[in-house]
Amino acid sequence: MNKMISDYELIDRFIKGEQSCFEKLIHRHKNKVYAYISLYIRDQALVEDIFQDTFLKVIQSVQAGKYADNGKFLSWVMRIAHNLIIDHFRRIKQINTISNDNYESDIFNAKRFAEENVEDAMIKKQIQKDVRKMISHLPDDQREVIILRHYAGLSFKEIAEITDVSINTALGRMRYALINMRKIMADNKISLTLS
């Protein structure tokens, strides 16, 4: 009797009035959705806002009957978050306040980079800076696949659904991103090792 309730079943029960079912859905997927938004947005308060807006939109869409289950609830939620992030950047562009100097993503300042010693920490910080710089030189579609795969931890199937392309296209973008990053490393004599 320890079977996990499917997303669809939770949505169905939520529609029928069980409010707690939506909380279970949020709890189940919040880490991936939050991490995804954090990869694009540096300001923590803004991440929280977009995260809340995402689930608010999800609730409104579910209640309006706009969600048809096909076993892809997380991908659907991620697409909503993705669209809200794009809307945010469009608004910023329109009011002309964006500057590359001010926008430096913190995707590499993850807790998993534990402190071993000062020297290792400094080297890791340099590696993070180098990788961030290389990723920033990639075309948008390649950068997005790298971020979704390696920092949001999504499968290529999920990436394909979120970005609205085939799995082969997503795989191709990853392949070209890695080729381009290797070329950038070679051209700039960058080494990404601790030794």
Can you put this structure into words, describing what you see?
This protein is 69% helix and 0% strand. The protein has helices at residues 7-15, 19-40, 44-63, 73-94, 118-136, 140-151, 156-163, 167-188. The protein has eight helices and no strands. The chain is elongated and about 60 Å long. The longest helix has 22 residues, at 19-40. The model is unreliable at 96-116 (pLDDT under 50). The protein folds into two domains: 7-94, Rna Polymerase Sigma Factor, Chain: A, CATH 1.10.1740; 118-188, Arc Repressor Mutant, subunit A (Orthogonal Bundle), CATH 1.10.10. With 195 residues, the chain is mainly α. Helix 1 crosses helix 2 and helix 2 (19-40) crosses helix 4.
Based on the model shown, name its key terms.
195 residues, mainly alpha, Rna Polymerase Sigma Factor, Chain: A, Arc Repressor Mutant, subunit A, 2 domains, 0% strand
List the helices and strands and how they pair.
Elements: H1 7-15, H2 19-40, H3 44-63, H4 73-94, H5 118-136, H6 140-151, H7 156-163, H8 167-188
Helix pairs in contact: 1-2, 2-3, 2-4, 3-4, 4-7, 6-8, 7-8
How would you briefly describe this protein structure?
The chain has 195 residues and is mainly alpha-helical.
Helix content: 55-70%
Number of domains: 2
**CATH level 4 superfamily of the largest domain:** RNA polymerase sigma factor, region 2, helix turn helix motif
CATH architecture of the largest domain: Orthogonal Bundle
How far apart the termini lie comes to: 51 Å
Structural class: mainly alpha
Write the CATH fold name of the largest domain: Rna Polymerase Sigma Factor, Chain: A
Radius of gyration (Å):
19 Å
Shape, please?
Answer: elongated
Compute the average pLDDT.
77
Percent of sequence in beta strands: under 5%
- CATH C-level class of the largest domain is Mainly Alpha
Extract low-pLDDT stretches: 96-116
Q: Can you write the helix and strand succession as a string? A: HHHHHHHH
Biggest sheet layout:
none
Please report the number of helical segments. Answer: 8
Find the count of extended strands (DSSP E, 2+ residues).
Answer: 0
